[in-house]
Amino acid sequence: MNDAEPASESADEPPRRRRRDPEGHRAAIIEAARHTFAERGYARTTLREIARRAGVTHGLITRHFASKERLFLAAVPGNRDLEQVAAGDPATLPDRIAEAFVRRLETDAVNDPLIALLRSAASDERAAAHLLVAMQEHSAIVYRSVLSPGESALPDDDLDTRVALVGAQMIGVAFSRYIARTEPLASMPPDRLTEHLTRILRQILFG
């Protein structure tokens, strides 16, 4: 099957990618999705708009990601890269998570899909809750692979609860610093913020 669109494209659309390049297509889709979600929010973003920006067909997006929800989860940097960030010594997991989180948002909070999702939560509460739950479930799987690899959850295991609290803490920081811009978080130096967040995440995860 050819991924290219017919030649009757409108003049203002970017040319379709006519080569077979699955990894290149996937990267282009994720990049276009990241910017579109950030600009338009989750509810107002369409797969057709993402396809137009990425220079691919709508059908190619659904073949790669199946749904807008799955594409959003793939486009959120923290969710997408969590396995790489989390890998390593379990004792320093809070350090890696906090450092990556602060660095990512300090670099480009404006174009971060998570910030867009938090901004639009009031107008689309159901979609936001659904996506945040999916991100939390993914985080629980990754954290468990680091903190208790190969072990089954015991009846009194509260790791999922601790992971949910980690997520809530980070969402709170993201909202206060990058959306509401409330003090003292708004003007706190990034290294200080990372130190405070690391300490809190360590307390949540390890007690």
Automatic annotation (TrEMBL):
DNA-binding region positions on the chain: 46-65
Listed Pfam families: TetR_C_16, TetR_N
Entries under InterPro entries matching the protein: DNA-bd_HTH_TetR-type_CS, HTH-type_TetR-like_transc_reg, HTH_TetR, TetR_C_16
Domain HTH tetR-type: 23-83
Ranges for region Disordered: 1-24
UniProt entry tagged with the keyword Magnesium: no
Alphabetical UniProt keywords: DNA-binding
Protein name, as recorded: TetR family transcriptional regulator
Source organism per UniProt: Streptomyces osmaniensis
Lineage, opening ranks: Bacteria, Bacillati, Actinomycetota, Actinomycetes, Kitasatosporales
